[in-house]
Each structure stands twice: as structure tokens, then as C-alpha cells.
Amino acid sequence: MSSERSPANAAQTRAIAEQVAETAIAKFAEKHPEVRRGTVVAEIPPPLKWAAIIASSVITVSASAGLLWLVSSVSEMNLTLARMDERMVGYMENQERTAAALEARVQRLEGYHRSGVSR
User: Fold this and answer.
1) Cβ-contact 34, 40 below 8 angstroms
2) What 8-state DSSP symbol labels residue 4?
3) What is the DSSP string of 49-77?
4) What is the C-alpha to C-alpha distance for residues 20 and 12, in angstroms, rounded to an integer?
5) Are 8 and 14 in contact (CB under 8 A)?
6) What's the rounded Cα separation, in Å, for the pair 39 and 33?
7) Helices and strands in the chain: count of H runs, count of E runs
8) Residue 29 contacts residue 36 (beta carbons within 8 Å)
9) Higher pLDDT residue, 33 or 70?
10) What is the CA radius of gyration of the chain?
11) Under a CB-based contact definition with an 8 Å cutoff, are residues 76 and 69 in contact?
């Protein structure tokens, strides 16, 4: 035997290595059917699918109801604030009239006392 490797020996060694690898892969695939190509399917159980559908529907309806409530609340707050503003304007006018009346009474009393009218 020569110390050099001939191309025929390298090809023969490669063919033997490929056969050994294919045999090892085939035996492994027989023992582990989940690794075969095209056969791995992530199947979600139907009850879990239905639960997810129901949960997403509840979340969607809740979000829609929350948005509707928010819009209606803001609208009602706007009306309430408008009414409060109207009442405040009336209240302020009334307070101004009362203050003016009190000021007039005070001035009349001060004038009365300044005039020196005694009893």
C-alpha cells in the first residue's frame, strides 16, 4: 500500500460515509416520527380555538362598549358644563345686583350718619 490517497479510495470512502449517514438518519427518523418533513402539524384543539374566538369577541365588544361610553360621557359632560356656565352667569349677575344693593344701602346709612341727624 502506498501512503498516498488515490481519488478512487476517497470516492469509495465518501460513498461509504454517505451510506452510513443515510442509514443513521433513517433509523433516527423511525424512532422520532415528529421530525419527518411535511408531517409536523401544530394542531390546536377545537375547544381551545372556540375559547380564543369567544375571548377575542368579548374583548372586542368590551372595547367597543368602552369607546361608546367614553363618547357619550364626554357629550354629557359638555352639556353639563354648558348648563353650569349658564347658571354661573345668572348667579354672578344676581351677586352683582345684591352687592350693588348692599353698597347703596351702606352709602345711604353713611350719608344719614354724616348729615348728623340725631334722635
Assistant:
1) yes
2) S
3) HHHHHHHHHHHHHHHHHHHHHHHHHHHHH
4) 12
5) no
6) 8
7) 2, 0
8) yes
9) 70
10) 48
11) no
pLDDT per residue as tens digits for the range 80-99? 999 999 999 989 999 999 99
Q: Which residue matches cell numbers 344676581? A: 94
Rounded-to-10 torsion of CA 66, 69, 74, 79: 180
State the cell numbers at 50. Answer: 372556540
Alpha carbon of 10 to those of 2, 3, 75, 87, 110: distances in Å? 14, 13, 86, 102, 129
**Sorting pLDDT into bands at 50, 70 and 90, what band is 8?**
confident
Helix H or strand E encompassing 21 = helix 7-31
Provide the residue type at 18 as one letter. Answer: E
**CA torsion, ordered 55, 58, 64, 68, to nearest 10 deg:** -150
Residue 37 region, left (φ>0) first, then alpha (ψ -120 to 50), else beta? beta
Query: Which positions ≥6 away from 35 have C-beta within 8 Å?
Result: 28, 29
